[in-house]
Amino acid sequence: MLAPSRSDAAEEQGPPGLNEKVSEALQQKMKPLLDAKNWDGAMAVIDSVLVGLDPNGYDTAFLSDIKAKIFLQKNDYASAIAPMETTLRLADANKNFFDKKTILDVVYFLAQIYYQEGTSSKDPTVQKNYFNKSSGYIKRWLQTTPKKNQEASLFYASILYNQAVVNPDKVDFDLIKRVQTEVQEGLLTSLKPKEGFYVLLLASLQQIGDLAGSAEVLEQMVKVKPDNKTYWLQLLATYLNLGGGTEKDEQKSRESFARAINTMERAQALGLMQTPKDNYNLVTMYYNAGQFGKATDLLYSGLKSGAIESDLKNWQLLAYSYQQIGRDTQAIAVLKEAGTAFPTGQIEFQIGQIYSQMENRTAEAYSYYSKAVAKGGLEKPHSAYMFLAYTAFELEKFDEALAAINKTIASADGQKDAQAPRLKQAIEDAVKEREAMKPLAEIKK
Asked: What is the band of 245 on the pLDDT scale with cuts at 50, 70, 90?
């Protein structure tokens, strides 16, 4: 049988006994205080007993361990660091002071406390120092623990990530790669990996601008946590960014918008992302994907049901959408429907414009332009009068045309329109010609 190593043999011997002074203080003074959770009183006893003790002896190590635990009870984690490190230093120098589990616990606590203090600090230099300390302790723990676990692997990856981004203007991409390696290993430790692994992997991919990789991770995240609206929103945003970032490749852009649409519809099937704004965004995604007919149908049904906010601009967009797919009659119909809810001349003006673009519908255009200026509420009144003048002129309603063009020119914006004076001259010439022809008409009678 092999003899145990010196360190193992030391552990087998067990820790040395406490001296009489320390034992007496623990039993007679400290125990009642600890039982009463009088932490400050217990701390005062420890500090008084520590005076005069061998700084490298077992009594100091034992009392430092108790002192650290009292600070933890008080949630004063920063103050627990010094006595905890004293305990660890003495334990490393004297293998029989504490068992392996106790030492591992101290190491893990130190890693956690330094990490917490680092995340709490606003000073990048302090953060870097604390994260380095935390990283050193957790690496020691991982190297000496008999069995790794998901929590520790995830913790280590979190430390590495914070080390990498401690200076946002100068991200350490080598550390980002180590984060990804640690996360990938952690994902293989269980059939149900912790959610934090995916969160860290996503963050690391976003740091290097890998949108495609981010989308893959988010797809897995929404599969694992389908009720997490934030993950769906992030996935949607990622696909939209992919679509917006590939403008030179129209096919890839449309594919990305198609994936965004699929994401939105999957989320909605789960009862998420169903606000009027979400529904409107779905319509715009269909537009961007080139699915104009589907976008138009969704917009119309949404406006009718209330799933999309029923405001004037959305009804105008619907009319424009029908025009884009060659359904001018329906465009006019929805504008007339909107006119009942929004009594503004802007609706009549838009109807007039659609009629103007249709063959042999000038009379209808003139009628709606007339209604538009009579009702008012126009975004650009001079434009409405200008169109009214054109259609009236075409219909040989010269007096009405002249009145409309005069209204145009009288406005500040109309005075800037170079076509207005020319149209007015043409109308006046037509009036003169009409007047000149009146005597001939009388002779024919």
From this structure: low
Whole-model pTM: value is 0.76
**Closest by CA position to 231, among listed 242, 217, 221:** 221
Determine the longest span between alpha carbons in the chain, in angstroms.
142
Band of the pLDDT at 191, cuts 50, 70, 90?
Answer: confident
CA distance 102 to 381: 83
401 within 8 A of 392, measured Cβ to Cβ: yes
- One of 3.40.50.620, 1.10.3810.10, 3.40.50.11010, 1.25.40.10 is the CATH number of 275-342, namely 1.25.40.10
Q: Do residues 227 and 249 touch, judged by C-beta distance below 8 A?
A: no
Would 275-342 and 364-445 be classified into the same CATH topology? Answer: yes
CA distances from 320 to 286, 332, 334, 391 (A): 15, 10, 10, 21
Are residues 236 and 259 in contact, defined by beta-carbon separation less than 8 angstroms? no
For the 364-445 domain, the top CATH level (class) is: mainly alpha
Total residue length of the chain: 445
Q: What are phi and psi of 371, to 5 degrees?
A: -65, -35
Residue 209's CB is within 10 A of a number of other CB atoms, namely 10
Angle 250-269/276-288 helices, nearest 10 degrees?
150
37: phi > 0 → left, psi -120 to 50 → alpha, else beta; which? Answer: left
Structure tokens at 142: 């991982």
Tokens encoding 379: 């975004």
Domain borders along the chain are: 275-342, 364-445
| Cα–Cα distances in angstroms (integers) from residue 176 to residues 40, 137, 181, 188, 369, in the given order | 43, 19, 9, 19, 63
Using CB atoms within 10 Å of the CB of residue 30, give its burial: 0 to 12 exposed, 13 to 18 middle, 19+ buried.
buried
User: What average pLDDT does this structure show over 251-263?
Assistant: 89
Q: Is the pLDDT of residue 438 over 80?
A: no
Instruction: Look at the block and give the residue holding tokens 């009628």.
Output: 367
> Of 29-38, 67-76, 141-150, which one has max mean pLDDT?
67-76
State the DSSP code for 5: P
CA nearest neighbour of 368 among 347, 342, 397, 389: 347
* Average pLDDT score over the chain: 90
The answer to whether the CB of 427 falls within 8 A of the CB of 402 is: yes
- Which of 39, 11, 34, 31 lies closest to 103, judged by CA? 11
- The string of pLDDT tens digits covering residues 339-359 is 988 889 999 999 999 999 999
List all residues 6 or more positions away from 103 whose beta carbon is below 8 Å from its beta carbon: 88, 91, 92
